[in-house]
Task: structure prediction
Amino acid sequence: MAARAQTATVIRPAESAWSNLAGYLRELGEYRDLLRTLSLHRISVRYRQTVLGVFWAVLQPLLMMLIFVGVFSYLARIPSEGSPYALFAYTALLPWTYFSTAVTNATGSLVNHTQLITKVYFPREILPLTYVIASLFDFVLGLVALLGLMIWYHVPVTAAILYLVPVVAILTGWILAVALLCSAAQVRWRDIGVAMPLMVQVVMFASPVIYPLGLVPASWRPLYLLNPIAGIVNSFRDVLLRGVHPDTVPLLYAAIVTACTLPLAYAVFKRAEATMADVV
Amino acid sequence: MIDVAFDKVSKRYRIRQSQDAGLKDFWAVREVSFQVGRGETFGLIGHNGAGKSTLLKLLSRITSPTAGEIRLHGRIAALIEVGSGFHPELSGRDNIYLSGSILGMKRREIAQKFDRIVDFSGVSEFIDTPVKWYSSGMYVRLGFAIAAHLDADILLVDEVLAVGDAQFQIQCHERLTELRRAGTTMLFISHDLVSIEKLCDRVGLMQRGELIASGTPHDVIEDYERLSARSHVAAMADVTPHLPGAAAAAQIEAVTFHGVDGGEILGTRTGAPLIARVHYDVTAPVDDAIVEVFYYSKDGSVLHCQHSTALAGGELMLAPGRGAIEFSSPAMGLQPGTYSIGATIRQHNHPGTIDWHYGRTLLYVEPGKSVRGYFFTPHDWRLVEKHAHAGDRSHA
Result:
């Protein structure tokens, strides 16, 4: 037997999880192998027994894009700020699809693994996290397809694309916050899962996915931008279609809202974790 | 060195008993305190719902306590319900990695132990087959093989030995013994008292969320059997009506047990003398009567032995009135356990039974003259050959 770990653990009734966020992160780090194994498992099982396999990751936003082109460009004649509407729609659909699939799948992640939760201990956030990681993988594939589209439409790929790194980081942070809150709430109130398809639709209409941000009246902006997806989608267009640095104000809104929500969401999740196995 | 210390630990569940009723508090564990030393094997016994599994859930952090504190030293792993985390579509190989990491193993650790795990499970031929094609036996074996190779300082074992065939159970026992020798601290829950007695250094008895006794396996198991005999008799007396026979000529009123001094007893020890009395009430004379006592397993599924007036002692005539037939056995051979007692009155060469008594009497047998095998049989011994060796003779 290996040298005995000198760690002493004390198990006490659950209290506020605020004070111990660093400890939770450390523990999550100790479980990184599980996070990795489960995430790879999600990705490999996802498209198993499908004919198109991993192409589905690209196909979903592409098909949505075609529908949008037909309905909103040809019929409704919504302006697209000088870019081809197909590209205009796809650059927004890509982050929105990442958000909606990650949040939808993560919401059910705990209740779909009742067997595990009631039998084995591991940091429960690993379950929603693996779904976010699997969706991130799809997102990266979709991004490659976007670069192909840009070449097709002769839109130059500029160095501004590097701004995507912080933008995607903020987006992922926001997705994590929503995923943690929704998955923990779903354990107690299954209404969350039922309402989820509607909620992601609402987020789509409340973000400049179909229409440009410019259509939103300036007086509404502060409220409108409290939805981080709005600022993020706008930044995607700035960086990819216009080749400029992202418009500061919308992105700053997204960053601040995310930075405030994520630690709070993690603390709420960890507090709920203490009795998750009893109610799931 | 204390590895596990429970200090007044309680766990409350809020349960809803019906649609319109409000939430009700249910204390699954109440102010439980005990300590387990390094390398010690501590067993927990008690009826279903007594709170044993909740204790392990608290210890493995699946759920958190409502009050109290648990202190642990070292890495903990739980051998709870094998096969948790298996994915049917994945091969046995992939599932070893998946399940292993869910149980807290690092990838490198699993890779190192991979061959041993496969060997132990005995499913090496099918290791690249999806586990959905596995038989349930293979599934369980693979699950246990993974869990049994966890490197833990403290191992929680919950009723997992009840699975698999006899050969596999022996293998599991051996593995646990091996871990125990290596100095692993163990907490062990089982309904199998024989395993508890064999494996544990100390045993705790849970009842309705409280730890009501702890001590040597022998003493606590005795307490437990006394407790279950009492509640079993009470339960049976409530639900089992007296079953009348074909004719009401005679009724068995009770079966009682007595020690050699004639005092009534509820239990005895293996190998001790035992007297059983069948009390009857006869209303019409019964010629050529046969009275018998049956010793069934607690659940009534196995008949262990029988006393009968038909074997010897001539003809039995039961005259109207109350009385008792006494059987005495110089050494009762039943192994430790709890037995359901049956008794009948019937007539020689007549089909059917006049009265049948079952389900109201229990006899518990405590360890006494402990032997291996299914029963104790009285025996003497003496030295019969006493020839010295040829070489020895020259010395004489």
